[in-house]
TrEMBL record:
<dbReference type="InterPro" id="IPR004302">
    <property type="entry name" value="Cellulose/chitin-bd_N"/>
</dbReference>
<keyword id="KW-0732">Signal</keyword>
<dbReference type="Pfam" id="PF03067">
    <property type="entry name" value="LPMO_10"/>
</dbReference>
<dbReference type="InterPro" id="IPR014756">
    <property type="entry name" value="Ig_E-set"/>
</dbReference>
<protein>
    <submittedName>
        <fullName>Lytic polysaccharide monooxygenase auxiliary activity family 9 protein</fullName>
    </submittedName>
</protein>
<keyword id="KW-0560">Oxidoreductase</keyword>
<dbReference type="InterPro" id="IPR051024">
    <property type="entry name" value="GlcNAc_Chitin_IntDeg"/>
</dbReference>
<keyword id="KW-0503">Monooxygenase</keyword>
<feature type="domain" description="Chitin-binding type-4">
    <location>
        <begin position="12"/>
        <end position="208"/>
    </location>
</feature>
<dbReference type="GO" id="GO:0004497">
    <property type="term" value="F:monooxygenase activity"/>
</dbReference>
């Protein structure tokens, strides 16, 4: 188990409810809270390259390089935080015992309530939600090919340019999303908190089971 990580290293923000993969990793002693708060990577995902944020938000800071396939759920971090990208089999090896990511029971079309805790609430453009394709393979790491090509939901502030509205573009402590109406069984959801005045988003991942 990792040594205790000082709380004064907490950075940025993470979802506290429902439980993310990062929260599970904290409970397992694999990560500290500050590491899960800093799952930070390029905000143009699922694009492959850095560059301007798409219209009508092109006056926002340009995106740095988005996460590579296989490292999406950690925002591209390939240090200890790589564990959130692990398959059940990889986690079982890491822990030395059988393991499966806990599943959040959901229903198709339901409203999912999300609560964030921020330690550095940046000027926010919004939130983007992606989900795995039907027939995705849980025995493989999450790649772009494992995800639906388009986000199933986006919640963006419309005000531009961001620097004229910084006081309005606040990170949301509570927000909600309507889950896709056609999904069944196990899926992975990727939630991005997208920052207007940097090139990054913060990535959170959830394992769900559509009943």
């Amino acid at each position: 188990m990792n040594q205790a990580i000082p709380e004064n290293q907490l950075k940025h923000g993470r979802v506290t409810s429902p439980a993310s993969r990062g929260a599970v990793a904290i409970d397992l002693g694999l990560l500290g809270g500050w590491q899960v708060n800093e799952m930070e990577g390029g905000k143009n995902f699922p694009a492959l390259v850095a560059g301007p944020f798409p219209p009508p938000y092109e006056t926002d800071s340009a995106s740095v390089a988005p996460p590579a396939d296989g490292y999406i759920l950690s925002g591209g971090k390939d240090d200890a935080r790589d564990c959130v990208n692990f398959t059940d089999a990889e986690m079982s090896i890491k822990l030395g015992r059988p393991f499966a990511w806990p599943l959040l029971n959901v229903t198709a079309g339901q409203t999912l309530q999300v609560k964030w805790e921020y330690t550095a609430p940046h000027t926010t453009r919004g939130y983007r939600w992606l989900i795995t394709r039907d027939g995705w393979d849980p025995q493989q790491r999450i790649t772009r090919a494992q995800l639906e090509a388009q986000p199933f939901f986006e919640d963006f502030y419309p005000q531009v340019p961001y620097y004229s509205h910084a006081g309005e573009l606040k990170a949301k402590v509570d927000h909600e999303v309507i889950l896709p109406a056609s999904k069944k069984g196990r899926h992975v959801i990727v939630l991005m908190w997208i920052v207007a005045n940097t090139g990054n988003a913060f990535y959170q991942a959830f394992d769900v089971d559509f009943k």
